[in-house]
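Shipment paperwork, digital attachment
Item: protein structure file
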Amino acid sequence: MVNTVTPSILSSTKKNLGLSEDYTVFDSDIVMHINSIFSILNQLGIGPEEGFVIEDADALWTDFISDIRLSLVKSYIYLRVKLLFDPPPTSFVISAAQEQIKELEWRMNIYRETYTDPDDPLFTDTIDGGTPTA
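Attachment content:
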């Protein structure tokens, strides 16, 4: 059975950072970082054209992404928040996270260039600028 409950963006990011949902001391810091990353995603062409921000734990992942092919956005936000909020102590771990971030950005660019109509998951556009195919 598939769980239909969608976690909030803030709650799941906090969980990945090792913070409990009811520990709210750092919420404003984490929200600030998440919103900064939403700006980066907007510049990459991912998410609503007008941009996206959260204010609290009410915003859900489905408010930002409706296409499951963009589930990697969750990892991207976590990795970026981790580097801003609680960076790893060694340069090796930082470099590994930065490499993961680069790969996720590359994959999101491929998604953006390939799937031009997120309301129709079968619609794709060729990357070379050719005729769109359905």
